Amino acid sequence: MEPDLDPLLAVLEDGSLDGYLIDDDDSDSDQRYVSGFTAPDAYQTLVTADGGVHLLVSGLEYGRATKEADADSVSRRSAYDYQALVAEHGSYEGTVRTIAAFLADHGIDSVAVPRNFPTGTADGLRERGLEVAVEREGVVEGIRATKTPWEANQISATQSANEAAMAVAERLIATTEIEDGALVRDGEELTSERVKREIEIALLRHGCALDETIVACGPDGADPHNRGSGTLEAGELIVIDIFPRDKGTGYFGDMTRTFVRGEPSEEARQRYDVTREAFDAALEAIEPGVTGAAVHDATCDVIEDAGYETLRSDPSAGTGFIHSTGHGVGLDIHEQPSLSPTGGELEPGHVVTVEPGIYDPQVGGVRIEDLVVVTEDGYENLTEYPIRLEPRAN
Amino acid sequence: MEPDLDPLLAVLEDGSLDGYLIDDDDSDSDQRYVSGFTAPDAYQTLVTADGGVHLLVSGLEYGRATKEADADSVSRRSAYDYQALVAEHGSYEGTVRTIAAFLADHGIDSVAVPRNFPTGTADGLRERGLEVAVEREGVVEGIRATKTPWEANQISATQSANEAAMAVAERLIATTEIEDGALVRDGEELTSERVKREIEIALLRHGCALDETIVACGPDGADPHNRGSGTLEAGELIVIDIFPRDKGTGYFGDMTRTFVRGEPSEEARQRYDVTREAFDAALEAIEPGVTGAAVHDATCDVIEDAGYETLRSDPSAGTGFIHSTGHGVGLDIHEQPSLSPTGGELEPGHVVTVEPGIYDPQVGGVRIEDLVVVTEDGYENLTEYPIRLEPRAN
Asked: For the Creatinase N-terminal domain, which residue ranges apply (chains A, B) (predicted)?
């Protein structure tokens, strides 16, 4: 992948800075994006004003970095006498001196750094005479919002794994018996925990992992951040929201479906139909040049017209449509752009969720979510999973 | 849990600072430790000079934080007009002003911060007149090295799940047929990938997750950082290293076993026996007051006496015992203290791995690893898993 670093280079030029420095571990998607590399322990990525990408890694990671990274050069810390510097000056000062030597080696006297750059490193470099300026707008996150075709393919692959996991969950629910109002399989009540575990196992089989997943029934589903627990009940709305990450590429997928096993209430069915209509309206609105705010408005229009509250009609609403319409997905599960009141113009290559929902503890929650990529003339849906309230076994 | 924050309070007193501030997300174990809380997005933890712990969280996390955190107070960002500040000043400046208002509310004019504290926040607070000083020694990491009995129990629980996963892996290997030198089950070659997947599934069933696991056969096992891939072979050393994390508590376990299915070479068997002897010598050496360096020396003595190289006998050795004897385990998989040339005095409550190994691409790798807690008069082994070269089905 060749990320377009021009907006970052413009920041360096505007600030008369020699380079952009990242110092972080595998929790930092910006660094992974810029370097094409990730490692569990901290390493450093330098982007020079001519667009060169240079890595500083431990000896342990050196071999892998030279093979895997999208970098013009990879240096190991030992090339700058890291061990001797730590022995003489301690871990903190030794590390700072090693990074300073790496920067000097590349002719760097001044750097821009991201907001989350370690203050310890920043202050240490400043003490050694370097200029360190915080880049405040999140320029790399902005670049990451627009996916290359390769990136869109990775996200699509994770979403395919996600579909396999959703199919496992739907089948589990569809094949239950109903006994005393509870869903029962093989003589045992089917729980949220059991469905989540089977989702996770299905994802593992497809090379994906997740920290959390949502299988929330009845009132649990009315709180968009409740992960759900306990027995699944007949006739109640069950919200299933899965957001796995491919273990190799690091790209996420994201999808939500809502099911009822048994007979839903009339009100639940109506909310499902309105959510589906809002979902279709949001998709209909997506094309380059349209703002995320406009897509969100199109979604709110449908839900408000049907008589439900939104955060647009009442900013303090506790029921109705109480979140935004969507968010960017990539190396982070939540990234730019957003389909929300503050969402800016959509561009080809943006990958966003579309996920309207209607919530009320008295009725439960409904949410329908697909993942789409904005194209030159509209969007392509990266999700191929049926949307239906009644779960089926296949 | 009541962490002993006295060493941190001493840092504040020495520096005449009003408080210690952490600003990070769930990748930061120090913050999780101090606050008893974790959240996917950034939140702030303030420790005041009197030992008070005060959190600043989003509205989304407020309810959970008030229930779960070990904090004297929890504030939500909206209490400091976060949304209005962001609307007026943008995300960066609005966030800094919110944190500054939170600090002012607690009467804080000067803070110590960890090395990895975001430079964006540090510089922003400094522009608003606050003193921000980097705490360079990692005092919270030092406190975390000594586990409370509750923490040792959590680590022990994760290690029990780890044992269940190791049993699945051992059984898989033990129940293979040998065909043309390959391990075969149900007519299919047993691969590293398959064993890893079954390990992960077993851990999921016990509420644990892992990012990586090692099942490395033959030459793969001779590189301590190779995760392993492809068909497992008969008569070859197979290194299995599992380091899961409990999804609820966040505490890690860590264990390694080495197996051979079929007949090992004489040399492989000898290396196994020497590694076992070194493992026993290391355990024998562990007690309060002994340094991690001395434990490492005891391990090296055995391995060198048997005629193999170590990094002590040759710092550039590429074969033999080419890593340290052990590391601390807790909310991070690698933390203080270390059983290595720089390892300081062991204290009751330290939890460390003991994991000698001998490596050579010509022979393969051997590693044996248990996890122990240092007690008043020695150690308690948190691992109850047999150590044997020949895998068994039960």
From this structure: 8-128
